[in-house]
Amino acid sequence: xxxxxxATQLLSSQNVGDLVDSVEAFLFDCDGVIWKGDxxxxxxxxxxxxxxxxxxxLVFVTNNSTKSRRQYAKxxxxxxxSVNEDEIFCSSFAAAMFLKVNNFPxxxxxxxxxxxxxxxxxxxxxxxxxxxxxxxxxxxQLKPNCLFEHEKTVGAVVVGLDQYINYYKLQYGTLCIRxxxxxxxxxxxRDAVGHMTDLQEWPGAGCMVAAICGSTxxxxxxxxxxxxxxxxFLVQKFQVSCSKMCMVGDRLDTDILFGQNxxxxxxxxxxxxxxxxxxxxxxxxxxxxxYTNKVADILGLLEP
Amino acid sequence: xxxxxxATQLLSSQNVGDLVDSVEAFLFDCDGVIWKGDxxxxxxxxxxxxxxxxxxxLVFVTNNSTKSRRQYAKxxxxxxxSVNEDEIFCSSFAAAMFLKVNNFPxxxxxxxxxxxxxxxxxxxxxxxxxxxxxxxxxxxQLKPNCLFEHEKTVGAVVVGLDQYINYYKLQYGTLCIRxxxxxxxxxxxRDAVGHMTDLQEWPGAGCMVAAICGSTxxxxxxxxxxxxxxxxFLVQKFQVSCSKMCMVGDRLDTDILFGQNxxxxxxxxxxxxxxxxxxxxxxxxxxxxxYTNKVADILGLLEP
Lengths: 304, 304
Hints:
Helix content of chain A: 25-40%
Number of helices of chain A: 11
Largest sheet of chain A: 7 strands, parallel
CATH architecture of the largest domain in chain A: 3-Layer(aba) Sandwich
Order of helices and strands of chain A: EHEEEHEHEHEHEEHEEEHEHEHEHEH
Radius of gyration of chain A: 20 Å
Structural class of chain A: alpha/beta
Distance between the termini of chain A: 36 Å
Oligomer: homodimer
């Protein structure tokens, strides 16, 4: 996939038409691209409407695992954007689909270090999840003769962003991975930090995943970006060749890499975690095809 | 330090006399060597008494950071072993000493992801600690316009085992390391798991340290075993050359490596996390000079 690429171009009124004309489906990351925390980024709805009016397929691909597709659709609607559940590919959904395509036995259980979205997607896919928010209030007793019990039927541990992370969950997940034969260790993603609120960044799933790597000394299977796992679904569902897709995101090491690995066009927006100096620094070797300040520039440059 | 070493020998009545005669100071790990959780391992007091009666210096070097030296001395006494605070080198003490020898400014503060022992050692060394157990009950609000504030005067984050780990502490430590210029990231140790109770292992400091590595994408300064930092203190205090020391421990990658890196003799006991098959497996390249089932074998083999 390491084909020679031209230099990164600033999106402009000269090249935006070619980009939009050559693409059939736009894949958008959400945090830092569509919104920051719960605040919509300026001009997004109008831009999405314009792209839809031109017959473009729109897909939303987010590493945030705290919500299910259903919950994401609700969030979009609450921000005034009409999006179908089928257009949303979140890493909670990816985790459930990974188990499904790998014929994970229905009689086995899945322990979740993460939030509601993962449990909901597991249930929709027909799996039994344990843990998650429910274990957020549990405490441990480091006392003599106290044995911490875990279910031997757990065959996979899914780790995502968990704002209720605690020692109980860390011990539960660690015991399953270390002691249940063949137990899978699945990470929704490894983002170090993310804009969980509009004003600042917070530790991301990469923090919780690393904690379990630290205690188990094992590496996870990653199902979110930049892993190619979700792309297979997209391609199958939308029947668009990757060369006619454009991945729009704010992160070089997840969004842009995800798009490039699949052979998509890529557009970095500077409305999220990546600054222009970081992008253009010689030490950065992940170079998108295009970059611009924000999604709305697509509209602004096309229809000045 | 990678001098050629002979094969690992099982401790026996043939070689135990030479070992004891050639050593002036025995360095003991604690968890899995002296005790498991709160249960003393059989025959330890008698063995320590015998070694003291032969004029050997005894030193206790533990990566467990939850207690201070004072609290460890209390634990030894409660188990019927008389040990002086000065003979105890725990990683909580190591963290405070690291700041001291590096002239960490007194006006700066230290944020602690860890337990009481670290805070106590920091205070004894004249530093101001924040966080620790006190932050174990704090929660975060991922709400719009909520800004998580952190002290800009924090100049070091110390991470150790923390059974009250939560998202508040992870965000606090991450913000200090990412945003306070020059802020140090100090790990008491990186043990994956440890015998926090007698019946089973639990995630160790390596779990919390990895979490902060995951969110900050930085690597810590490690002050506990196998880092050589503590050895400098030992050598200075006890005025014994490393070749006349024997490190006794249950972990290959911390205890035995720590001893070998300094040029000490090493004795692995199988009463903790390492099994004989693991020790003798061809994939293991950390080979102690001697190994035996438990500390009391030194006494049993010397005085059958």
